[in-house]
Amino acid sequence: MIVAAQISTRAKTWLGFVSIPIILYTLLPIGWILSLSLKPDADLPDGNYFPVNADFHNYKLILWGSAHTLFDPALFNSVGICLIATFVGVALATTCAYAIARLDFVGKKLILTSALAVAVFPVVSIVTPLFNLWRTVGLYNTWPGLIIPYLSLTLPLAIWTLSAFFRQIPWEMEQAAQVDGATSWQAFRKVVVPLAAPGVFTTAIITFFTVWNDFVYSSSLTSTGGDYISAHGAQTVPAALANFTGSSQFVQPTGAISAAAVIVTIPVVLLVLIFQKRIVSGLTAGAVKG
Amino acid sequence: MATIELKHLVKKYGDGFPAVNDVSISVAEGEFLILVGPSGSGKSTLLRMIVGLEDITSGDLLIGGERVNEKAPRGRNLAMVFQNYALYPHLTVFENIAFPLRLAKNKHSEQDVKRMVDDVADLLELREHLQRKPANLSGGQRQRVAMGRAIIRQADAFLFDEPLSNLDAKLRGQMRTEIARLQRRLAITTVYVTHDQTEAMTLGDRVAVLRKGALQQVASPRELYEQPVNLFVAGFIGSPPMNFLPATVAGGRLQLPFVEVALPDSIKGHFKDGELAIVGIRPEYFEDAGLVEPGKKATGVTFAAPVDVTEWLGNEKYAYLPFEPHPDVQRSLEELDRELDGEAMRTQLVVNLDGASKVRQGETAELWFSPEKMHVFDPKTGDNLTRDETKAKEIAEESEQERLRQLENSKGQPVAV
């Protein structure tokens, strides 16, 4: 904010001009997907960027029509699994990162390095053994069967970002709370958590996206979307999209896939818009002298 | 209100280094005690041990007669103002001050909290800032919010950890007076850490001087100034600091760089001929010989010495007189200077003269001082050999009487305005 105030008007206009082509470049494929999802099947290869005879039949098809048994449970799975994995991951990572930032204990370095090692470990290499293991123990194609590997993706990420964030909070703040009569838990809840909130939200969003976008685990460890109620069926949207088929073997399901892609993009956009205001850095400014 | 007793407190860190070494002090009810010392003297550690943020390695800490070594900070009912204030940035000034009350759940009704915060805000003139966030306050206002948060707890004692070090010089002076006034009015036991000897002298009923974790002397400011126990205390208290001059003992007399004086009778047996002593004379004990009344002049010694530089400040005039120190004492004096966070480039005598003095730089000046007021230190141990115990006792009693009288006076006055 301070930086923005110091930039002259001329520089601002100039920066604005430069950003236009970048915005166009990034929006182009998104616009194209939107356009494809609105085109009737016959118009798909017509080469127009903007649809000529736009209609919503693709959306109807995947939400209520013949493809809904494939898409709706997948959407339900995606939302549920992502929310649970994010919530559990962030809750665990918050306490873990707090301990790492504040306490001196044996094995602290080990936790951080192993978290980093897990984070950089190629997912593809563990998918096959996991597939066999999950089939044996009965976790294949279930929600926990996806949430558990997702935690291994999100925890290292969350622990690293959050512990960096906790380190920025002056320790004196907590000590002041303790002297003011707070228990360690009260100090954590009333002082540390509110101050760390922007960091926690940022971490939650990153975590949510990581899980939301995952394809490898979902396509390998699940087979069906299920029917909401039964324990089996945990396929998420990215994997379900691959199973879409056209109305006959000669028709590509391009329109339906595009419509599904647009639908799964909406929550992501919404999340960013909602949390944008909460990711305000500089909340701690002024706590300590300055 | 409570007494605080420190009995042989020791703090050792993992490497076995004692940051605080066998410190025993007892703070009376309503007393204002200052912990002072250069950086690394363990004064902040000691304060944090009292409040419970540092573990006590050995020794006993008693608050109100009860041993609290193992109690968590919240169980000790103390209020502390941190060096960086440690205000909660996500809360308004009102909520910052109300924070300790909110923690004591169900103890105070919403109206009670409102009334108490308003009272404290009035006391500290924070009324119009109650709904602002700490980030939008000035340094002095933040300082007052931190004090408000401490006051509202009605704690047994106040602890201050260098609370004024982040303020500019002018504000520091004002806040210092404000803290003194507040402490007198609330008549609450206070322990205050500072490295600034001016704060120590002006605020404290008693001052504890620490050096490398060890307590040197705990006494009233006047006793520290007039009857220091050793070189360190003598050098730390007073501004500009006491002059330390090497002196050779010869025939019952002390040979100083510019002048020769009689060896005080009380320490005649301590030195043999040819031995070295360190003599301490405060700059303000010197006077321009031309301005001393003839009757008084005979009680002291007069000497002439070349003046290098003078500084005229209106009401007073500093004059600097360089001299060649004796190599044997130079090392120990340099070491002392380093310990006191000083960076003296040369050995010189500093004298604080009357503003009307005609002493000019580059010329020889006629100066006068009374040997009665000088101190003689043992160059090996640093002990003050001329410390007058009976006089020190008198000063201590006087200061204590004065403190109790002030405490009695403050009882008649209402606490909140």
Quick structural overview:
Chain A is an all-alpha fold and 290 residues long.
Backbone shape of chain A: globular
Radius of gyration of chain A: 23 Å
Q: Based on CA inertia axes, which overall geometry of chain B fits?
A: elongated
- The assembly state of the depicted protein chains is heterodimer
Distance between the termini of chain A: 17 Å
What does this structure look like?
The complex is a heterodimer of chains A (290) and B (417). Chain A is mostly helical and 290 residues long. Chain A has a domain at 69-243: Orthogonal Bundle (MetI-like fold). Helices cover 70% and strands 0% of the residues of chain A. Chain A is built from twelve helices and no strands. Chain A has helices at 2-6, 9-38, 57-63, 68-102, 108-120, 123-137, 143-168, 171-179, 184-212, 216-221, 237-242, 254-275. Chain A is globular. With 417 residues, chain B is α+β, with helices and mostly antiparallel strands. Chain B is 30% helix and 27% strand. Chain B is built from eleven helices and 21 strands. Chain B has helices at 43-51, 93-103, 110-123, 139-151, 169-186, 197-203, 221-226, 231-236, 294-297, 327-339, 389-412, and strands at 4-12, 18-27, 32-36, 58-63, 66-67, 78-81, 157-161, 189-194, 206-211, 214-219, 243-250, 253-255, 260-262, 276-281, 287-288, 301-306, 309-312, 316-322, 348-354, 364-369, 375-377. A six-stranded mixed sheet of chain B has the order 6-7-8-3-9-10, sandwiched between helices. In chain B, strand 7 (157-161), helix 5 and strand 8 (189-194) form a beta-alpha-beta unit. In chain B, helix 2 crosses helix 3 (110-123) and helix 2 runs parallel beside helix 4. Chain B is elongated and about 80 Å long. The A-B interface holds A 170, 172-173, 175-183, 186, 190-191, 194-195, 283-289 and B 51-53, 72-74, 77-80, 82-90, 99-100, 103-104, 133-137, 139, 142, 149, 153, 166.
Helix/strand layout:
The complex is a heterodimer of chains A (290) and B (417).
Chain A: H1 2-6, H2 9-38, H3 57-63, H4 68-102, H5 108-120, H6 123-137, H7 143-168, H8 171-179, H9 184-212, H10 216-221, H11 237-242, H12 254-275
Chain B: E1 4-12, E2 18-27, E3 32-36, H1 43-51, E4 58-63, E5 66-67, E6 78-81, H2 93-103, H3 110-123, H4 139-151, E7 157-161, H5 169-186, E8 189-194, H6 197-203, E9 206-211, E10 214-219, H7 221-226, H8 231-236, E11 243-250, E12 253-255, E13 260-262, E14 276-281, E15 287-288, H9 294-297, E16 301-306, E17 309-312, E18 316-322, H10 327-339, E19 348-354, E20 364-369, E21 375-377, H11 389-412
Parallel strand pairs in B: 3-8, 3-9, 6-7, 7-8
Antiparallel strand pairs in B: 1-2, 1-4, 4-5, 9-10, 11-12, 11-14, 12-13, 14-21, 15-20, 16-20, 17-18, 18-19
